[in-house]
Design brief:
The chain is an all-alpha fold. The protein has 7 helices and no strands. Helix 3 runs antiparallel to helix 6 and helix 4 runs antiparallel to helix 5. The radius of gyration is 16 Å and the shape is globular.
Length: 201
């Protein structure tokens, strides 16, 4: 496995600092549930970054990493639904909880096609919501144009999440070295896009 470099750690630290800033700056005019969803998402991102800084990329070998990494897109997408399409909050909330439970169960009980399908469906659905919803709101004039950057972050989190998920599932879409080489920069760009995009909300 690729050894983590000083540059990787610097990029991960910057990601963590941006995630921490987003946690403390979020909340004005939002419901406590929405704020809670965003806090879980960026809090998990912060913790994940710190774990990688301390343990290196070897930390990705833990089965719990797939489960924890799923919290980021699921919590973030649920927060977006709660904030901008509240009538679907309960329905999507049930999907998010069931999806997280299924991923948790299949990580430890199955390594076959079923586990991969569950992973792809849950990550794909959450990623599409994070990508499409902010862009649609911006196009419709319901949010400022800059809010569409949240969608850019959604595209990046979708790519990163699927790369990590399939890597951990033993079905990598790219070589392990390539994934680990681009991961820190991908996380920083993703978090930056979220931070700038949410500043327009």
């Amino acid at each position: 496995m690729k050894k983590i470099t000083i540059l990787d750690r610097v990029l991960l630290l910057a990601t963590g600092l941006l995630a921490a800033y987003q946690i403390v700056s979020e909340g004005e005019g939002l419901s406590s549930f929405t704020v809670g969803c965003y806090t879980v998402a960026f809090g998990t991102l912060l913790v994940a970054g710190l774990v990688l800084i301390i343990m290196g990329f070897e930390g990705l070998k833990n089965k719990a990493v797939v489960i924890v990494s799923t919290l980021i897109p699921l919590s973030l997408s649920l927060g977006l639904v709660s904030e901008n399409a509240s009538r679907f909050t309960w329905a999507y909330g049930i999907f998010a909880v069931v999806g997280l439970l299924l991923i948790s169960i299949t990580r430890y009980s199955s390594t076959g096609k079923f586990a991969t399908i569950i992973l792809a469906v849950v990550h794909g659905t959450a990623g599409l919501i994070i990508f499409l919803l902010p862009i649609l709101l911006s196009v419709q004039g319901l949010k400022p144009a800059g809010y569409s950057l949240v969608g850019v972050g959604g595209a990046l989190i979708g790519v990163g999440g699927l790369l990590l998920a399939f890597l951990r599932a033993g079905k990598p879409l790219l070589s392990e070295r390539t994934i680990l080489s681009i991961l820190p920069l991908l996380l920083l760009l993703m978090t930056s896009a979220f931070l700038i995009g949410f500043s327009f909300s």
